[in-house]
Write a structure and sequence with these properties.
The structure holds 2 protein chains of 2 kinds. Helix content of chain A is 76%, strand content 0%. Chain A is an all-alpha fold. Chain A has one domain. Chain B has 11 helices and 13 strands. The relative contact order of chain B is 0.13. The chains are: A mainly alpha, B alpha/beta.
């Protein structure tokens, strides 16, 4: 019935293969390279700029009561990470583009012909964006530290690499950015549209907080809900001074995991059942 | 081999593919012919798992394509000319595709060479013409040296040289024992490429037969001209012979072939000024089939109107 004809190639489609494929495409695109470069630059420039401005300001207002204690290492460490909010948006947008680009350019057809098992593709993309976002964010925080250190010293501000405050910014901050990137990937999978996905992501980070602030004024218990919004919970663990909340660390991690995974899981289910 | 059973796709109330069953055999080129919007692309998308059938099933080499462990070496598919990210180059696109199945990158250069894209391998796909995009799509389909080729309108946008090349490619792949399934809305193209034809119209299979059957339905048709037409008609009259008078000296004969007609005329002493066998062309057969499809459509829309 069927012929004995065989392809000259005997490879099978594997998660590793799809991951390699995603990496080849990712690094062949200019748009992704530019976004990564912008993410690094924004982080470093905002860190250096904030620290410099704070140093200048505190040297002029030294001894004035009520001013932030710039000599505290916790305060300085948080200054170094002050670009992370923008990092969340930029790398979140990258997460959106990683999948929405497939649908806006039609390359989804090629992608899902090579791996008709669709969830394998989404898993590969999730791994890629997680590793990439983590490496880029850790790298830019380290670079920010190197640039900030002389500025901090110049103004007599304490900044220690090994100290708990900076380590918190480094690791929890990175986690917060990874959360945003996975959220972006999830929203991109849901909407299949670059502009829509990025707009929704920005709205969740920027518009939702304003809306909740208004709600808190009328409904007091909403304050508890607001703590779990992605702009708060995402970087809350990294910046205990800037984002004051009454959550335990495990509660915050639960919030981070929820925002990272829930849109992605809904997106995964839709990707499985919808036509390409 | 591709086997479809009762394959159906509905989008809302609209049935795009309606209980379609067919088998595409290996070792020959099977043409999938139908007017635009007949359901060709939707059927092909269901074969390779991009669209889910509303009902029915389709298998490739005995199993569902979505269960294949080596989809690229099993089936080579060309669906849309530009299913490639516009900012990628042909080389990076093909390398990314090859990486999924650990196909060596030397194969990428081979298919680039084969499809004549070597000189533009490093240029962005976004600037490509339709024909170039089509060539890249064919290169992608051939990448895994697959046992089954599914090509949706592969000659669209190709120059005559490219059209001839696709035809040769399809024939040689089939000659090597592969399953080749090509869609087109042009009968003339299929006539030169396909061994077997599946005709689809309005989502239904209108015909499924070897191409020779479309050319010859077994009954000869002949045009005969003679001054003594009445005498000729008497001479030819017999059971199973259909005679139609076209004008004062012309007759259309259905039934006996030209040799029989010539002999009868000779026996009756009638001079023939013309004796011409009519060849039913594929185009005629196709038009006939798709006219039915159109009739089916208008009937359908009038009943819908009546219902409202």
């Amino acid at each position: 019935m069927t012929t004995q004809l065989e392809s000259t190639f005997h490879g099978h489609v594997t998660l590793g293969g799809v991951l390699r494929s995603e990496a080849i495409r990712f690094f062949s695109l200019n748009s992704t390279r530019i976004l990564i470069l912008v993410a690094v630059l924004v982080n470093v420039l905002i860190a250096a700029g904030t620290l410099w401005a704070m140093g200048l300001f505190s040297s002029q207002t030294a001894g004035v009561p009520g001013m932030p204690d710039t000599s505290s290492p916790a305060f300085t460490a948080e200054m170094v990470g002050s670009g992370l909010g923008f990092g969340q948006l930029i790398l979140g947008a990258l997460g959106v583009l990683l999948i929405s680009g497939e649908f806006t350019t039609g390359s989804a057809v090629s992608t899902f012909l090579a791996s008709p098992q669709r969830l394998r593709v989404l898993l590969a993309k999730s791994i890629l964006i997680t590793v990439l976002t983590a490496v880029v964010t850790l790298g830019s925080l380290l670079l920010s530290y190197l640039v900030s250190k002389p500025i901090a010293q110049n103004y007599g501000m304490a900044l220690e690499f090994a100290g708990e405050p900076f380590q918190r910014v480094l690791w929890y901050g990175t986690l917060g950015v990874v959360m945003a990137a996975l959220m972006g990937l999830g929203l991109g999978t849901l909407l299949r549209n670059s502009a829509g996905g990025i707009t929704l992501l920005a709205a969740i980070f920027f518009v939702l907080p304003i809306a909740t602030q208004l709600l808190i004024m009328t409904v007091e218990w909403f304050r508890n809900v607001a703590q779990f919004l992605p702009d708060q919970v995402g970087l809350g663990a990294a910046f205990p001074l800037s984002y004051q909340n009454n959550l335990e660390i495990w509660q915050q991690m639960l919030g981070v995991a929820g925002w990272a995974l829930i849109p992605l899981l809904i997106g995964a289910w839709l990707l499985k059942v919808r036509d390409i | 081999m591709i086997q479809a059973q009762e394959l159906t796709k509905r989008y809302g109330a609209k049935t795009v593919v309606d209980r379609v069953s067919f088998t595409v055999q290996p070792g020959q080129v099977t043409g999938f012919l139908g007017p635009n919007g007949a359901g060709k692309s939707t059927t092909m998308r269901m074969v390779v798992g991009l669209a889910k059938p509303t009902a029915g099933a389709v298998s490739v080499n005995g199993r569902r394509f979505t269960e294949s462990r080596n989809p690229l070496t099993e089936v080579g598919t060309l669906l849309e000319a530009k299913s490639v990210h516009k900012s990628l180059t042909p080389r990076s696109h093909l390398r990314a595709m090859a990486a999924t199945h650990s196909i060596p990158f030397t194969r990428v250069d081979e298919v680039l060479d084969l499809t004549g894209l070597k000189d533009v391998a490093g240029k962005k796909v976004g600037g490509f013409s339709l024909g170039m995009g089509q060539r890249l799509g064919i290169a992608t389909a051939l990448l895994g040296d697959p046992r089954v080729l599914i090509l949706d309108e592969p000659v669209n946008g190709l120059d005559p040289e490219g059209v001839a090349w696709v035809r040769h490619l399809a024939r040689s792949q089939a000659a090597a024992g592969k399953t080749v399934f090509i869609s087109s809305h042009l009968m003339s193209e299929m006539a030169q490429t396909a061994d077997h034809l599946i005709v689809i119209g309005r989502g239904r299979i209108m015909a499924d037969a070897p191409i020779t059957e479309f050319l010859d339905d077994g009954v000869a048709q002949t045009v005969v001209r003679a001054a003594e037409l009445e005498a000729l008609m008497t001479a030819l009259a017999a059971d199973g012979v259909q005679l139609t008078r076209v004008d004062a000296t012309t007759l259309r004969v259905i039934g006996p072939d030209s040799e029989v007609i010539g002999r009868r005329a000779l026996e009756a002493g009638i001079v023939l000024s013309e004796l011409r066998p009519l060849q039913r062309t594929l185009e005629d057969a196709y038009m006939e089939l798709t006219r039915d499809a159109v009739e089916y459509q208008s009937q359908d829309s009038s009943t819908t109107k009546g219902g409202k």
